[in-house]
């Protein structure tokens, strides 16, 4: 039986190369889309489709394809971008591709959504897929709109809502935390114990591969996270273990740290650092998804790879 071919969009981003490698390891033929022609990994086929901001004729890209993994989109860039741009790229373009996939007889369409489609910015919360979605920014609303549009199509689709993703090459908040962990000094973060859900990039790639298989029920959304949440203090300790060092965490009360952050104009940054969010992947685990990486071990490897780099 010939190998099935998967079309992957957004393969050049942080998550994309991990997904492509996992799909190849699973025996799929992989075709990726590109805005402009660029070198690709061994064994990967590429097709130039252009920018999602404009309508695309997806028929050439979908020819001979069995499944679609749609990773491409406008990232969560914070305030400043107009909502219409998020809606165009994250919702309308997704549904245009999904409709073309339906017409092409695609077996399954996997969409990379976000936990932001489920919930907005909170200091502390525990959520599940059964909670009513309450996105509170343009990015989250655009991701939810895409999911709602998929639900209206006669198509086998799966939407994955990852929490904060970490791994080699990570940027933004996790990169800042890694930078803190690498400082050769004790850190006053020992009392930051609010639990937080993360997902290792290899676990997310495994979830994408699992979502393409019959054991994963279709036509629904799934939270994707490492099974056990972890606190900021535990994250730092794990990273420093990967660096071959002791945790060196001083238990300064969070209230004092919050006051200090307010004085220096870093209240928002501290809120993101100290807040908690528990989002468990119960539905995926029940379906049979088996994440390969443990959180502490993956964080230690991340720090070790950053040091080597």
UniProtKB/TrEMBL annotation:
Gene3D superfamilies, per database record: NAD(P)-binding Rossmann-like Domain
InterPro entries: Epimerase_deHydtase (IPR001509), Lipid_A_modif_metabolic_enz (IPR050177), NAD(P)-bd_dom_sf (IPR036291)
Pfam family, any one: Epimerase
Residue span, NAD-dependent epimerase/dehydratase domain: 6-214
Listed name of the protein: NAD-dependent epimerase/dehydratase family protein
